[in-house]
Amino acid sequence: MKPANPASPGRCLAVLLAALLLIGVWGRLPVAIFGGGTIILLLIGLNALVFQGATRPLWRGTRPCVSQDVYRGLVLVPCLLFHLLSPPFGLIWMIAQVMD
Prior knowledge:
The protein is mainly alpha-helical. It has helices spanning 9-28, 38-60, 66-99. The protein has a domain at 36-100. The chain contains three helices and no strands. Helix 1 (9-28) runs parallel beside helix 3 (66-99) and helix 2 (38-60) runs antiparallel to helix 3. It is elongated. The relative contact order is 0.17.
């Protein structure tokens, strides 16, 4: 059996969706369980995970044909948006918790 290609758009999309799902589950847990600083650690870890599991393989992978290049671009854009938007999201969330 041939191993899965780490740069396949489907696998990279699964990594991104798993990170977003983890943020969603964490957001539904009571704040009393985890401290306020846990979101920063979670976002740092998820940024590293998405970078290693999705962004980097898509960015550096080979481009065998044009149709796969389009799929790679469609997955790479949300990965880059995740990296750009997650630190401000964490800061806004912390400010909202302090104001509460």
